[in-house]
Design a protein that fits this description.
alpha/beta; 12 helices; two-stranded antiparallel sheet; TIM Barrel; 286 residues; seven-stranded parallel β-sheet
Length: 286
C-alpha cells in the first residue's frame, strides 16, 4: 500500500485517449463520462463518406458549449481533402474544442499552414497533434515535431503505416515507434501515446502491447472502447516498487551533495532525478 507520507503530484500528461465516432452523438456522450483523460471525436476513419456532414454538424453542436467533463479533441479528415477544410472552418473557433488531431501529416509545412490560418476559440493557438501514418511522415518526424509552437504532440497511426510499409509482424513497426519517440523528445514534446489496439476483446494482448510500448518510451495510449481504459492505465501507472525507488532517489539527491550511487548501484545525476520526478508525477488517484 502507499505509505501515508507519500505526496502524489498532479498529473501533467494524459494516459488515456478515447476515440468516439462523430456521427454517433450518444457514443460521444458516453465517452465523456467513461473515465478517459481525453475524448477524441473522430470525423475521419470512423465515419462513412455519406455521414461526414452529419458528423461535423453534430460535433459542432457539442463544441458550441465549453465545460465538458474532460477535454474534447477532434480528429479532422485528411488535410489534403476538401472535407478537412470544412471541418476546420466549422469547428476550430468553437469554445468547447481543446485540440485538433491531424491525420496523415507528411510535412512541417502542413502544420505551419494550419497553425497560422486556423482561428482559435481563445487567445493563442489551438493545440495541434500530428498523426504520422506513412513512411514519408516517419522520415520527417523531427521536422514535423518542431514545426510550430502550436504542435503539442506527435503519434503514430499504425494501421495506415503498416499498410504503407507492407509490414506483417508487429515488430516491423518498432523502428518507426522509436523514431517518433526520439523525434518528440528532441523537439521538446511530451512522449507520444501508443496507437490503438484494434481488438477490443483482446485485453491480455492489449496489456502485453502496452508493456512493450512503455519499454520503448511511449506514455499512455489511444483506445477505441471504454473497456480498454483500465488496462492502459494499469500498464502506464508506476508500480509501488517504482514509486519507492523514485522517492529514494529524490531523497538522496536532496540530502547529500553531488553525484552519488545508491546501495543498489543506481547512479544519481540530474537525468536520474528528473526521471524520478516524472515517475512520481504519474502516481495519480482518481
Amino acid at each position: 500500500m502507499t505509505s501515508p507520507e507519500r505526496t502524489v503530484p498532479s498529473v501533467p500528461h494524459p494516459l488515456t485517449w478515447l476515440y468516439a465516432p462523430g456521427d454517433r452523438p450518444h457514443v460521444v456522450a458516453r465517452a465523456l463520462t467513461s473515465g478517459a483523460d481525453i475524448v477524441i471525436v473522430d470525423l475521419e476513419d470512423a465515419v462513412a463518406p455519406d455521414r461526414k456532414d452529419y458528423a461535423r454538424e453534430a460535433t459542432a453542436e457539442l463544441l458550441r458549449e465549453p465545460g465538458h467533463p474532460v477535454p474534447v479533441h477532434v480528429r479532422v479528415n485528411a488535410l489534403d481533402t476538401p472535407t478537412a477544410a470544412k471541418d476546420l472552418a466549422a469547428l476550430a473557433a468553437l469554445p468547447g474544442l481543446a485540440g485538433l488531431r491531424l491525420p496523415k501529416v507528411t510535412s512541417a509545412e502542413q502544420v505551419i499552414h494550419l497553425a497560422e490560418t486556423t482561428p482559435p476559440a481563445a487567445p493563442g493557438t489551438t493545440p495541434l497533434h500530428a498523426l504520422l501514418e506513412s513512411a514519408l511522415g516517419i522520415e520527417r518526424a523531427h521536422a514535423i515535431a518542431s514545426a510550430h509552437p502550436a504542435l503539442r504532440g506527435i503519434s503514430l497511426g499504425e494501421a495506415d503505416l503498416r499498410a504503407d510499409l507492407g509490414v506483417r509482424g508487429d515488430a516491423g513497426l518498432d523502428w518507426s515507434r522509436s523514431r517518433v519517440i526520439v523525434a518528440a523528445r528532441a523537439a521538446g514534446l511530451s512522449p507520444p501515446s501508443q496507437s490503438i489496439h484494434p481488438d477490443i476483446r483482446d485485453l491480455e494482448g492489449l496489456a502485453a502491447s502496452c508493456a512493450q510500448g512503455r519499454t520503448l518510451g511511449f506514455l499512455g495510449r489511444a483506445a477505441i472502447h471504454p473497456r480498454q481504459l483500465p488496462v492502459i492505465e494499469r500498464a502506464y501507472l508506476p508500480t509501488e516498487a517504482e514509486l519507492e525507488q523514485a522517492e529514494t532517489i529524490i531523497k538522496a539527491a536532496t540530502t547529500e551533495q553531488g553525484a552519488q550511487a545508491l546501495q543498489d548501484g543506481t547512479f544519481i545525476d540530474a537525468a536520474v532525478v528528473a526521471a524520478a520526478h516524472r515517475t512520481l508525477s504519474l502516481a495519480r488517484r482518481r
